Amino acid sequence: MARNSTRENIITAADRLFYERGFENSSFADVAQLVGISRGNFYYHFKTKDEILDAVIRRRIEERARMLDAWVDTSQSPKESIAQFIRILLMNEEKIRRYGCPVGSLFAELAKLNHPAEGGAREVFNLFRIWLRRRFEEMGKGQASDRLALHLLARSQGVAMLARAYPTEPFLEREAEELLAWLETVAEG
Amino acid sequence: MARNSTRENIITAADRLFYERGFENSSFADVAQLVGISRGNFYYHFKTKDEILDAVIRRRIEERARMLDAWVDTSQSPKESIAQFIRILLMNEEKIRRYGCPVGSLFAELAKLNHPAEGGAREVFNLFRIWLRRRFEEMGKGQASDRLALHLLARSQGVAMLARAYPTEPFLEREAEELLAWLETVAEG
DNA sequence: GTCTATAATATGATAGAC
DNA sequence: GTCTATCATATTATAGAC
Questions:
Q1: A53 Rama sector, left if φ>0, alpha if ψ -120 to 50, beta otherwise
Q2: Residues in B lying within 8 Å of A, measured between beta carbons
Q3: Closest CB from B20, B100, B166 relative to A108
Q4: Any idea what the CATH number is for the domain that residue A24 is in?
Q5: Which residues contact A151 (CB under 8 A, 6 or more apart)?
Q6: Of A37, A66, A58, A172, which is closest to residue A106 (Cα–Cα)?
Q7: C-alpha–C-alpha distance, residues A46 and A16, integer Å
Q8: For B82-117, how does the pLDDT look when each residue is reduced to its tens digit (9 = 90+)?
């Protein structure tokens, strides 16, 4: 992976632009310019714009799956793994303030466009949902695990949205702390 | 207001389409067709597409300001007013599941487009923020009022996002109940 | 594999008749 | 106030040379 082939470079550039400017608002010309190739060369690697979108979504899923695996490997407990999830809000703070959550913003855009790839974007949510559910199950939360997973996902999405609306205020850090405190009460209860 | 003039009809149609399909994805042709006028007639009422967007945002702010005033008038307590705010998730459940929150989705789109009207879209958030802050102040929450207002706004946004991602699941009702329970604990604490 | 045209279409916007 | 052209531009996509 991360081969320096033109195809991989296209996916990397598209991934970035789709996040920073949105999918519809990113043209082939924009991506081609960022990669440093001509628009025509584009179509040798991808027949349609939707194919690039699919490739971007697949890569995002793969990257996040690896990240989630690593969190499980490096954490001492499921609670610590979930805390890692909450802390990505802080790790990506600057980007979230500027562009929101990449998962939520792409899904929201594709859903509004009624785009065929909406399902693929939802899969990224699913990845986190299922991973979080497993961690809560390991914490002994049983039937409540899925509810807790969705709750935490929703809280994170809301924090990202408001952090973008009020990027200069210390809102994101405060809410991340509240989420970590919430995690403690869940662990105790 | 709600005059049946062509101008008002255009704003109404644009408001709906911007919500259901997004701003960029709604063309003049789409709006004109919904209103039942020609594309050319359009430019007699609005010189640019951005002017329509501004008019839509202004109307949304006015409508919501009236709604918030009405909630204060019909509620017995500030807590009851805030509960009304939470219940709009349930009142608009079907639309939220299909199109998300109109406030959040328009703001997110304009922010990603780096559109000049992003500030106007943020004003809708501000309207709710300030209103909620006042209610919490009336509940005696003092300096914590703004933090509580932003927290509730973020929670609502997150619920709307996940409700759109999982529209067939009973997620929204459950989270609305949790928010009402949260409001009780805030009132007691 | 990469390039330079070029086609085909959609869209925001304008001009002018009625 | 509303209409029918029409323009100008951007964008996805294709054809074919190198």
A1: alpha
A2: 20-22, 24-25, 99-100, 104-105, 107-109, 111-114, 122, 125, 147, 150-151, 153-159, 161-162, 164-166, 171, 174-175, 178
A3: B100
A4: 1.10.10.60
A5: B175, B178
A6: A58
A7: 17
A8: 999 999 999 999 999 999 999 999 999 999 999 999
Whether residue A55 contacts residue A45, with contact meaning beta carbons closer than 8 Å, is answered with no
Question: Is the domain of B65 the same as that of B24?
Answer: no
Selection from A19, A186, A183, A2 nearest residue A86 by Cα: A183
| Coil/strand/helix, residue A54 | helix
Assess if residue B52 is contained within a domain: no
Judged by CB atoms closer than 8 Å, whether chains meet at B109 and A21 is answered as: no
Q: Which residue reads 């807590």 in tokens?
A: B79
Give me the number of domains chain B comprises: 2
Other C-beta atoms closer than 10 Å to the C-beta of A47 total 10
Inside any domain, residue B131: yes
In a domain, A52, yes or no: no
Q: For the whole prediction, is pTM greater than 0.90?
A: yes
Same domain, A152 and A109: yes
With 0-12 / 13-18 / 19 or more C-beta atoms within 10 angstroms meaning exposed / middle / buried, residue A116 is exposed
Here the CATH number for the domain that contains residue B109 is 1.10.357.10
Q: What is the pLDDT of residues B42-69, one digit of tens each?
A: 899 999 999 999 999 999 999 999 999 9
DSSP for B60-117, please give it. HHHHHHHHHHHHHHH-SSHHHHHHHHHHHHHHTHHHHHHH--HHHHHHHHHHHHT-TT
- Domain residues for the domain of B27 are 1-47
Four-CA torsion A133, A135, A139, A143, nearest 10 degrees:
10
Q: What is the CA B125 to C1' D2 distance in angstroms?
A: 37
